[in-house]
Amino acid sequence: MTSFVRHFLLALQFFTRIPITGRLAAWVGFSPAMLRASAAHFPGVGWVVGGLSAAVLYGALQLLPLQPAAPWVAAIGCTVFSVMLTGAFHEDGLADLADGLGGSAQRERALDIMKDSRIGSYGAIALVLALFAKVALIALLAQMGTTLAVVALFAAHVTSRTMPLFIIRTLPHVGDTAQSKSKPLAESLSNAGLIAGVAWWALALALVSWWLPAAPWAIAVSVSVLGLAWMWRLLNRRLQGFTGDGLGATQQLCEVLFYLGLALFMR
């Protein structure tokens, strides 16, 4: 149990701006092996980010006046909060991957472009479209029901952070391994780690299914899985493996598709 908590806190420290400092950080510790083990807790980070973002969405919807624009304002607010909470970690990955794959058809050149901290036209377009899609879909779900939107936000964050685990497990890491932030966690993911990550997700889906049993959660997850399959094929075909940017892009795409699947089939 001690190792479980330490690995979870390390994942939280790595993927969010939540401060884990001082004595707590010293107790958690750090090593490449611990960071690899923390990969199993990516969906657990989704519990925290999704739960807090859902609370912001609910609070905004309760405080704002009952006007047509209220769901849009609340959707923007919770999206801004989630970006600040994570330091735009995954959004940055999406932009870098779009720049790399859009900027060159050659693998090595694409990898070099992805290392550039400057954002290009492909990255800017991908980032704007992804953020707008998230805001629009969250606002749409909020118009369909406050509880639906709040629960969906939580479920989408957990689900979308589960999907990259399958890429880590089945594709090799590529790129500049000496400088890559993702290399220590991407070297390997054991079957036990994958099972632990899926357990985080299954518990979340069991919770939301109990809360709103009429919602088409299975369809939302299935649409998200289609996004995972598309990203797996793209990364395998273009890069013959994955980078940390690819994992971030996978999370972003799967989150958007989760909302889309839910909105399309919710009646």
Give the SSE string. Answer: HHHHHHHHHHHHH
Sheet with most strands:
none
* Mean pLDDT score: 89
Shape: globular
Structural class: mainly alpha
Distance between the termini: 42 Å
Number of contiguous helices:
13
Helix percent reads over 70%
Beta-strand segment tally = 0
Question: How would you describe the oligomerization state of the chains in this entry?
Answer: single chain
Regions with little confidence, pLDDT below 50 for 5+ residues: none
Q: Determine Rg (CA atoms, Å).
A: 18 Å
Descriptive key words:
single chain; 267 residues; mainly alpha; 79% helix
Provide structural commentary.
- With 267 residues, this protein is mainly α.
- 79% of the residues lie in helices and 0% in strands.
- It has helices at 2-15, 22-28, 32-38, 42-63, 70-86, 89-103, 107-115, 121-144, 146-170, 183-186, 191-211, 217-239, 244-265.
- The radius of gyration is 18 Å and the shape is globular.
- The mean pLDDT is 89.
Summarize the structure.
The protein is an all-alpha fold and 267 residues long. Helix content is 79%, strand content 0%.
